[in-house]
Write a structure and sequence with these properties.
Elements: H1 2-17, H2 20-23, H3 38-59, H4 66-81, E1 93-99, E2 103-113, E3 116-125, E4 132-137, H5 149-160, E5 164-168, E6 180-181, E7 186-187, H6 192-205, H7 211-227, E8 231-241, H8 243-254, E9 260-264, H9 270-275, H10 297-301, E10 308-313, H11 320-336, E11 343-348, H12 356-371, H13 398-401, H14 407-417, H15 427-434, E12 445-453, E13 456-466, E14 469-478, E15 485-492, H16 500-508, E16 512-516, H17 533-539, H18 542-550, H19 555-572, E17 576-586, H20 590-599, E18 603-609, H21 616-619, H22 641-647, E19 652-656, H23 668-674, H24 676-680, E20 684-687, H25 695-698, H26 700-703
Parallel strand pairs: 4-5, 4-8, 8-9, 9-10, 10-11, 15-16, 15-17, 17-18, 18-19, 19-20
Antiparallel strand pairs: 1-2, 2-3, 3-5, 6-7, 12-13, 13-14, 14-16
Helix pairs in contact: 1-16, 3-18, 6-14, 19-20, 20-22
Length: about 700
């Protein structure tokens, strides 16, 4: 036996000396050259099915059904953002005025929520007689926020033409940076979109979207605009570009007080978005939107039959083909309503931005529908103020002038106020939350050869988890001991080729090991998108994770299906003792394994190595990293990860180096506090790894702990 052990260990050493490419056997295989596109293609197919069904429904929509359809769209928005806050006093005040010959600019601060300050500029005409028509002007992501020169040019032109116009700083921009760093006098993060998504992911865990805050800012901005005696409340339009176009679409769909809408450089279709630039930052995505069978055109339909102008750029990164499809679909409904003259589309052969052709089209549209006039509207050069001249706060930052609330503090309060059900979360409810649907039977398997080694062999194989999802795997089978052996399913966040040390530890202990690349991991990892290195660093495979939420199919739930199908495979093998199957999850692979174990009792115990300790740790600090792929929308309304570990009892969990939201190991006392209920139920053992301790030593107790 000693000699066998020695040769077996020599064989293991040969395995771990192999390059990862020998274990990642599909990467260059002729039949799997597109394996990295498997998960995106699968999600696009699911989206396409829902969007096709939607198109058929909309084509059959009758005019008398429009009110009910409008309500459906609004309910889907409100579901995806977590509802709207309570309307509270604005406490608005003017902090300064810029006087000019033909208009003036008031610097305004109001509170969209108590202590949540919004900085704004109100442009007022000095000619004509009030009450004036008005324009609500949400902003895009451009630098300078309300001081961006193009915005100033348009706002001044509107004031000169006899409109009151209100622009406010979107949170995370201008005077409202949420993650302010006083040393750098800038955001702690590179871009406003990064800040939006950092905060947005925290919101998702409590069942909200960042859009809950941005939309409410816009509704309260409209409240302020209509509170002004200079404004005619029956003649109000909304327009903005890019992120401002997004919020133009949102606000028009939700607020009946708006009479005219003109979003610029936003509307396209979700099918074209998924094929091109993918989901954008957090406030532009509503969980469940695609699952509900909704698309960009539904923002327009919810506003029908009021005047709607779609402003597009032929060379925009928001697909012009999608914009044209949206326009044609919306126009068809407007014509059925007898309101074909109230919808139009303007295209310019240029790129993303509120360029002059689109601005002129908007001026004409507003003149027609708010003033009843026609003809060309000119634009002459406007005086452009410096950013600090337009500040409503003393220092140019709410954080340093006023303090108050941020999205982070408000979201943390919402999380702290959640009261989860007293009873443990049942498997049926967890399955519903995860949209967990495991096919029955043994998965179809394709073999790709065997690596024969002294004392063991490794089968290279692919199994079908569900139609459209194939999981590359390594099945390592030791020769000894004889007979049926215990088995482990191993899922590593960086893929099976990164799990060689864990495989070695399990093989040494006589376990059969199935190491898998669950969808989106290892060999099936999609290529990094074009959103920037900071995006990938913080949010991982953002496009797949966000598209999954849009479809109500959380990515960790999908990966849990892959794990459970791997258990099906193991249980079907004659070499495996099906009563002794365990799971090992490492880093980003640990949470999907935990979900699978919570739903599948065949997994008799789990080792969770480097797992996020709790979702709550993500919302307790303003910055996190590498957690988004494991986020479940609204999870904290029903459970947290320690609750799932406790639910495994009397099965066991071995928790190694549990981490915070930045991936840093927590102190053992912190983990024990989080896992008090699980420890009380004798369901978990909390471990801190010693310096450079290998898995073979670390997992010894776990492997003997049945």
């Amino acid at each position: 036996m000693k000699a066998l052990s020695c040769t077996f260990l020599i064989g293991l050493a040969c395995l771990w000396a192999q390059s990862p490419s020998e274990l990642d056997f599909l990467t260059n295989h002729t039949d799997y050259r597109d394996i990295r596109n498997m998960l995106p293609a699968y999600l696009k197919r699911l989206a396409a099915e829902r969007l096709l069904a939607r198109q058929r429904n909309v084509e059959a929509l009758r005019p008398e059904q429009l009110p009910a359809y409008r309500q459906k769209v609004r309910e889907a928005i409100l579901h995806g953002i977590g509802g709207l806050p309570e309307r509270t006093p604005l406490n608005a005040r003017v902090t300064g005025v810029i006087e000019r010959d033909d208009h003036k600019i008031e610097k305004v601060i109001f509170e969209s929520q108590p202590g949540f300050y919004v900085t704004a500029n109100l442009y007022l005409p000095k000619t004509g007689r009030p009450p004036y028509p008005a324009v609500l002007y949400p902003l895009g992501h451009e630098p300078g926020a309300k001081a961006y020169p193009v915005w100033q040019q348009m706002l001044v032109t509107l004031a000169r033409a006899g409109y009151v116009a209100l622009a406010w700083d979107t949170l995370g921009q201008g005077e409202r940076i949420q993650l302010w760093d006083e040393d750098f006098r800038a955001s702690k993060l590179l871009r406003s979109t990064t800040e939006h998504t950092m905060l947005g992911i925290e919101c998702l865990l409590v069942g909200d979207s960042l859009a809950r805050y941005t939309i409410w800012d816009g509704i309260r901005a409209l409240d302020y605009l209509l509170s002004r005696p200079e404004v005619d409340p029956k003649r109000v339009a909304v327009t903005g570009n890019s992120g401002g176009g997004t919020h133009t679409a949102y606000l028009a769909a939700l607020d009946d007080r708006l009479q005219v809408a003109a979003p610029s450089c936003y509307l396209t279709t979700w099918a074209r978005l998924l094929e091109t630039i993918g989901p954008q930052d957090a406030e532009q995505c509503f969980p469940g939107w695609l699952a509900a069978g909704l698309d960009h055109a539904d923002f327009v339909l919810a506003f029908a039959p009021k005047p709607y102008l779609i402003l597009s750029a032929i060379r925009d990164f928001f697909s012009i083909a999608g914009a044209r499809q949206t326009y044609q679909q919306a126009r068809s409904l407007y014509e059925r309503l007898g309101a074909g003259e109230r919808i139009a589309m303007t295209e310019a052969d240029d790129g993303h931005g509120y360029s002059l052709p689109r601005r002129l089209a908007a001026y004409r549209w507003f003149a027609r529908w708010l003033k009843g006039t026609a003809g060309e509207v000119s634009e002459r050069e406007a005086p452009i103020a410096r950013e600090d001249e337009l500040w409503a706060t003393e220092t140019g930052q709410v954080a340093t002038s006023l303090g108050g609330e941020t999205v982070f503090t408000l979201n943390r309060k919402r999380a702290q106020a959640l009261r989860r059900p007293g009873a443990p979360l049942g498997r049926q409810e967890l399955s519903r939350i995860l949209a967990f649907a495991k096919p029955a039977g043994t998965p179809t398997i394709r073999s790709f050869g065997v690596l024969e080694r002294t004392g063991y062999r490794i089968e290279k194989l692919v199994y079908e988890s569900e139609p459209g999802i194939e999981v590359p795997a390594l099945l390592a089978i030791p020769e000894a001991p004889a007979g049926a052996k215990p088995a482990a399913i191993l899922i590593h966040g960086r893929g099976k080729s990164a799990a060689r040390a864990e495989m070695e530890a399990l093989l040494k202990a006589g376990f059969i090991v199935l190491a898998i690349d669950a969808r989106g991991l290892g060999e099936t990892r999609p290529a990094a998108g074009g959103k920037g290195s900071d995006w990938t660093r913080y949010f991982g495979d953002y496009d797949s994770a966000m598209t999954s939420l849009l479809l109500d199919r959380p990515l960790p739930g999908q990966r849990a299906v892959d794990v459970a199908r791997g258990v099906d495979l193991l249980a079907s093998r004659p070499e495996v003792d099906a009563a002794k199957i365990c799971g090992v999850g490492v880093e980003a692979g640990a949470v999907p394994l935990l979900y699978a174990a919570a739903l599948d009792e065949r997994i008799r115990k789990v080792a969770l190595d480097g797992m996020l300790a709790a979702y709550r740790t993500v919302i307790e600090r303003p910055i996190h990293q590498g957690v988004f792929e494991n986020v479940v929308f609204g999870a904290l309304k029903s459970f947290d990860l320690p609750d799932l570990v406790a639910s495994l009892a009397p099965r066991k969990a071995f928790l190694i180096d549990a981490t915070d939201g930045l991936g840093q190991p927590l102190r053992q006392s912190e983990v024990e506090k989080l896992y008090g209920a699980a420890i009380k139920a004798a369901a978990v053992k909390v471990i801190r790894r010693k310096a450079e301790e290998p898995p073979a030593s670390l997992y010894r107790d776990f492997l003997n702990w049945w």
